[in-house]
Design a protein that fits this description.
Strand order of the largest sheet: 4-10-9-8-7-5-6
CATH architecture of the largest domain: 3-Layer(aba) Sandwich
Number of helices: 16
CATH topology of the largest domain: Aspartate Aminotransferase, domain 2
Largest sheet: 7 strands, mixed
Oligomer: single chain
Strand content: 5-15%
Structural class: alpha/beta
Shape: globular
Radius of gyration: 22 Å
CATH superfamily of the largest domain: Type I PLP-dependent aspartate aminotransferase-like (Major domain)
Distance between the termini: 12 Å
Bound molecules: D-serine
CATH class of the largest domain: Alpha Beta
């Protein structure tokens, strides 16, 4: 970080400033493929680092426990109105600190400890907070879990088994059903989940953290007409600061608000609320519609290029921003591949694949996505180069060829230098 960009920080704490500067270089020079990450705009960065940081604001706009909220109320009301408009919902709460607290608030609103709750199993592509055992949501509640199909038919293999979801829901009658997840490359059928939840008498929650930006931009169907609650983080495809929102029908508004505050949290992070408001404004622009569709087009092109290079993709491809690669056939464990890719300047995360025989800390797959590279302006014409780099890196990992990884790293840095990253001064 140059002193002119953050003069006070550089003067006060040069050591910390040097770490931020190094991260800026890393984010500028590398090809970031983690599907839950992105680049926020300079405007979102600015809004997230303001004097709004200095305020305590327990309560909601017009109903606070502290005075001096004239401006904070306006900021939060603006974020709420923008969320309601963008997602077509009756009510929005923009205070959850992040996705996990947001989901905890949903349980607090609709279930009691010991109640049965249902979600997709983590190794199948769900999330810890969807009732998985090591999470509080799987120990304070009785979590029952669904997964994806394992069939010989490539048309259905790796897809959510809606018949099994229905059978489980009707057998268990969970208080809450979560749909959505963190490693789902295919479109979620919210209407099918709604039908199941109605039959089972369950509250249906769509956790759209990964695809919120695609929904906002019209590149994935919206759950708004089908579910009771929408839970989302704000920092993935939505391209906002790290935070979360809960949105719902009017009938659930009081329960959701009460669960977030005072049920679970204290004062909202007002500086984050401001960043969310800016991100929602950006996501309402025509350019964001183009962005959301470009994310999906890039992911489909990248999936096709990987298939051509002999990669095995869970579900055979993607409908959204995310691709889950099963590396079993390549003979390279996911962690080994992820670390080699990192040395090649390509940032991914190792990930379980459905029915993974390996352990979560040493799984068979890597998870990649296109939100960040699309934010930098890469298009479908670049995806064969990206697939080549991935193929060469995995090959180099198998052979222990560090020189090959170094060559790829320099090629990656050369291309990325031509595509400045939003919010970054370097590149
Ligand atoms: N950690 C997020 C992800 O990477 O998908 C989910 O919470």
């Amino acid at each position: 970080m140059s002193a002119s960009r953050h003069p006070a920080l550089s003067a006060t704490d040069p050591e910390l400033a040097s770490y931020v500067a190094a991260e800026e270089v890393l984010q500028a020079e590398t090809l970031r493929l983690i599907p839950s990450e992105n680049y926020v705009s300079a405007a979102v960065l600015e809004a997230s680092g303001t004097v709004l940081q200095n305020k305590y604001s327990e309560g909601y706009p017009g109903r606070r426990y502290y005075e001096g909220q004239q401006n904070i109320d306006r900021v939060e009301a603006l974020a709420i109105e923008r969320a309601k408009g963008l997602f077509g919902v009756d009510h929005a709460n923009v205070q959850p600190y992040s996705g996990s607290p947001a989901n905890l608030a949903v349980y607090l609103a609709f279930a009691k400890p010991g109640d049965t709750v249902m979600g997709m199993a983590l190794p199948m592509g769900g999330h810890l907070t969807h009732g998985w055992g090591v999470s509080a949501t799987g120990s304070w509640f009785r979590g029952v879990q669904y997964g994806v199909r394992a069939t010989a038919d490539p048309e259905t293999n790796g897809l959510i088994d809606y018949d099994a979801v229905r059978d489980l829901a009707l057998a268990e009658r969970p208080k809450v059903i979560f749909c959505g997840g963190t490693a789902l490359p295919r479109t979620i059928d919210f209407a099918a989940f709604a039908e199941i939840a109605r039959e089972a008498g369950s509250v249906l929650v769509a956790d759209v953290a990964h695809i919120a930006g695609l929904i906002a931009g019209g590149a994935h169907p919206s759950p708004a007409d089908h579910v009771d609650v929408i839970s989302t983080t704000t920092h993935k495809t939505l391209r906002g600061p790290r935070g979360a929102m809960l949105m719902c029908r009017e009938e659930h508004a009081k329960a959701i608000d009460k669960a977030v505050f005072p049920g679970l949290q204290g004062g909202p992070h007002n500086q984050t609320t401001a960043g969310i408001a800016v991100a929602l404004h950006e996501a309402a622009q025509p350019s964001f519609v183009r962005y959301a569709h470009a994310v999906v087009a890039n992911a489909k092109a990248l999936a096709a290029a990987l298939l051509e290079r002999g990669f095995d993709l869970v579900s055979g491809g993607t409908d959204n921003h995310l691709i889950l690669i099963d590396l079993t056939g390549k003979g390279v464990p996911g962690k080994v591949a992820a670390k080699a890719l990192d040395r090649a300047g390509i940032v991914v995360n190792y990930n379980t694949v459905p029915f993974d025989p390996r352990k979560p800390f040493d799984p068979s797959g890597v998870r990649i996505g296109t939100p960040s590279l699309t934010s930098r302006g890469l298009t479908t014409e670049h995806m064969s180069v990206v697939a080549d780099w991935i193929a060469r890196s995995v090959d180099a990992a198998a052979k222990g060829d560090e020189q090959a990884l170094a060559v790829i790293r320099s090629e990656v840095a050369d291309l990325m230098a031509a595509f400045p990253a939003p919010g970054l001064p370097l590149s």
